[in-house]
Design a protein that fits this description.
4 copies of one chain form a homotetramer. By secondary structure, chain A is α/β, with parallel strands linked by helices. In chain A, 28% of the residues lie in helices and 21% in strands. Chain A has 2 domains: 155 residues, 3-Layer(aba) Sandwich (Rossmann fold); 160 residues, 2-Layer Sandwich (Dihydrodipicolinate Reductase, domain 2). Chains A and D meet through β8, β9, β10, β11 and β13 of A and β8, β9, β10, β11 and β13 of D.
């Protein structure tokens, strides 16, 4: 049984870590921090966790005692919280964007920050970096959009079949976090669709950098807010040099993901949707069809808070500690 | 490891049984029937169960082989399916209304049917009938509305504190089943609230009969369809003979439910809501406040497909077989 | 053509006034105030009003020039804004609670405020106070819940048929206003039902005071937040002394409301719902059925921002100025 | 005052025609047909139209008496209903796909039908074909997706700035019609996003044919069902030959649409959304930004039942009869 600390446990990803880890047979959350809510029971902000007997604490990073710390802290904050933990010999999984980029300049440009404490980190997408994750001391958990976008595009890029991808994503509102804003009000989101940061979202360069490691590709990305609590559906539009048969493409994906416990490559004609993966760590990938204009479409669906954040962090933890990869992540999607 | 058969596995309660039992350490679904879909993989109608390696079969009740059969069949059908199973010595949990009533006349009047095969059955509300369930061969799983309404009212009735209760319930759409109807179309439900069977819903006499076993009470009930997938919130309005302090009422509920693994009695001031129990087998009960007009309000929330149907069936199964009561029901609510 | 000023035009009721008055043949909005947004075009906060060529202005009440001012300001603020307007001879319709109560003590107790500037005002429910509204200089526009609750209960109370009513209301989120809060976040409201101020909502004493003018009645009230943008459905549970036939009750309502342009008394068996009145000034009233326990149910539905606020204000204005009552309010509900 | 007949008035587009025409000063619906509901009041299926004093009738096309008939009938049916009307000298606006295509072969291939009665028709997109519509006897009202997609792409295509467009659309559920199906159930749509006919939707060749009249362009199209009642947001991804400045593109659109009463070209930085046009006949067009990969994005939003169907039909009617173009279409969007 390893001991886990969660820094910033009062947000949605913190809540998800607590919800899922409650069913982990070899790991236990021993500290859940929140400066603002110190002393309050967890269920004050997470009403669904009423059965957890745990209180928020205010613990400074340098005073943390745990085998593993998961930092559910915003970008800009993580870069100051992670280093003292690593220094103490604690392994860390960071949910922010601070340690995701190989190219610091790209990070600093898109995040508008100077990175004060760069460290070596492994990009925590198990399907691509499983080996490196096993021994990592610092794992940078991928962004929610990049998770779905990369998994949907990777085989095509790796096989050099496409040179340009357009990722049109539809995301649930929980991705915007627990803090109330105009954007996330029910009256603004319900019965509505709102594109945002249409040509300037930070996850574009993250997708670009990771895919470019495997092939020469140019990435375009636009997210849309839809009236959904959880989930990201990414429609990847691309134009292969030559026509590709659906079953050929499906087989390609089958081969890439055949041993992956959380990737479902769907049959030709089967359609990914959010409800198939709601609350679960699965990623569904499907379509593989090409139209008369030569466009090939691949679609992926994930739960942004699970596979796109906290579930993937637990998957990374399971890999880091040699646990069964599916521990705490066995539950299937919640449909309807 | 016991073997379970599910008759009528192609509906929502069938899907929930399969979803939840997938994580049961001592029970396994070996047969899932559907006449219409025989031979098709489960995920054809349950897209979230893509990882289950199971196909629908067409098996007649008299040919079922299993330790326990759960009949997720409509009222009127169950009365013909259950008897041959019981005769074969198979234990049965029936999700329909056919075996819930002690008074056959009430059943026949409200369901508009002649009951052809009455049998002795235990009403499967564990909080009231745990002892009887242990040795039951036939358990009649409670209706979804009665589950929440009875749990919210029972202590007041048992203590003879109230003589009349008005249950105003708000229900998600999944309670109407998997078959498309005008009522359940998105365009009719979304951004809408629709009361129905305002003074004539079948669950009224069910609540009435069960509570009347414990005290002299008159029950009124009205359900409302709200734009929610899962969940029933029941607001119980009642007028105690004398004024009751909130903390006194809360303590009363604490005492009644203190050993119950799935009932959360909330603090005074804490408010039940659907998201706290979404996807889980928990029932939250709260409010306990009285207004200037003498009205005392108690509110309960459940997931209609879990605590209100399939989860409660598994709870009953766990009790019948002496398993840990929380097996397959450990997962917490899905919020947000 | 009269000139209208709207004070506090940057909220939802302000937006509705602007949307509806745009189609008024005899009235024109000439000033729309917002201190914070002074100088900005209206559509900065009201994206649907892009075609209105109007900017927010910062105008003090004492400097307002208009025939009529509608104060879409919060309670506590209105009591300081309204008096200088009235003093200048401007007629005023106030949307806050500040001038709704005959009994100041009740107001001060429930609103937790000392009323500094009491004035004579007419309660602006046209169906009850049309004559008084005609010549009023200050109209206190009713609360959203009281509008639906009073219209649904009034005939029964006036005829002394009931002594106690329980109003169980389900409201859309727009009633909470335009300012983001935890309560109104999509992630908290969607797929959820949340009762609030279960025995302590301010609209309870408002309903109580207005109905008590017509009969001896005791009012209980509980609101529930449902995942709906607009609309209030109120289910009124009551227990008449003697049994009342549905068609008798329906006829009673028909008689009371036969000349009312915005009240639809439904047939027995027809069910009020929010989508029937969405975006419109109509109130639908129906059910009229009694159950075996003697409970009689009447249900009303309104759009909280129209009949429950801005539409009713325009109706009051039309009455005050002798315009056709339906001017600017002709549009039917938006369904689906 | 002209007399209008609606054939197939029992669907959503029929309901919208009735809702909007109720406020038309120069046109009146005198016949609304439905074989199935003949004799029933309109509000039996359109609960929001309770104040319309009109009943469904069963009238054969050859017996219709009206100045104009709007056929709200499915493709395949219209081709048999329209010709007898035209023969009688009645002007017709057809909402189906039957008369939209210049190239019959394309129609027959994508609709899987043999067209038995081809007739000359004008494509009823006022922004492109106003002159031809004025004198048309048969107007083919555009498809809902093509309306938004063409308006968003047309200036770029006409100016030969782009050669390829990818239209990624998100649509509300009302586009699927009033008939209940699995696809349109609340439980399947809510909290979900579902792409469909990913590379094979019939509206792709319609967009292709109409745009190809103005420039050499290759069109790709994918629709997604989102949990929204009304509205289509279309994100058009395209790659101009050379970099285009946002303000240059915006100005281009301004020039094309400057006299259009229902097209709002938004400012750079302003974002189209569904709630801005909900229930109204407006189309908002915005974005105009280009990303580092050279992709230029233009986004449009419409209400699929109004600008995408019935409102556009009324706009066409106003043009055909020389009425003020905005008659019956004055109402602004319903937000929130």
């Amino acid at each position: 049984m390893i001991e886990i600390g969660i820094i910033g446990a009062n947000g949605y990803t913190g809540g998800e870590l607590l919800r899922l880890l409650n069913n982990h047979p070899q790991a236990e959350v021993t500290v859940a921090t929140s400066r603002k809510l110190s002393g309050e029971p967890i269920y004050k902000v997470h009403p669904h966790l009423r059965n957890l007997d745990l209180k928020f604490e205010a613990v400074a990073p340098e005073d943390m005692e745990a085998d593993l710390v998961i930092t559910a802290t915003p970008h800009g904050a993580s870069m100051n919280i992670v280093p003292p933990l690593v220094e103490k010999g604690i392994r860390v999984i960071d949910l922010s964007g601070d340690y995701r980029f190989d190219n610091l300049e790209v990070y600093e440009k898109w995040y508008g920050l100077t990175h004060e404490n760069p460290l070596d980190a492994v990009y925590g997408l198990p399907e691509l970096y499983r080996e490196e994750i096993k021994s990592a001391n610092l794992v940078a958990n991928p962004g929610c959009f990049p998770t779905g976008a990369i998994l949907a595009s990777f085989p095509l890029v790796k096989e050099k079949l496409v040179k340009r991808i357009i990722v049109d994503s539809k995301t649930g509102v929980s991705g915007a976090g627990i803090k109330p804003t105009e954007t996330t009000m029910f009256t603004n989101v319900s019965d509505n669709v709102i594109p945002y940061l249409i040509t300037s979202h930070r996850h574009a360069p993250e997708i670009q950098e990771k895919l470019a490691n495997y092939g020469d590709v140019s990435v375009s990305f636009t997210p849309h807010l839809v009236p959904v609590i959880r989930g990201i559906l990414s429609t990847v539009h691309t134009f292969p040099e030559e026509d590709l048969d659906s079953s050929y493409v499906k087989e390609l994906y089958d081969n890439f993901y055949e041993d992956e416990p959380f990737v479902n490559v769907l049959d030709v004609g089967e359609i990914p949707r959010l409800s198939s993966v709601r609350g679960s760590n699965f990623c569904q990938i499907g379509s593989f069809d090409q139209d008369e204009a030569g466009r090939l479409v691949v679609v992926s669906s994930i739960d942004n808070l699970v596979k796109g954040a906290s579930g993937q962090a637990i998957h990374n933890m399971n890999i880091m500690y040699g646990f069964k990869e599916t521990h705490a992540l066995e539950y299937l999607g919640l449909h309807p």
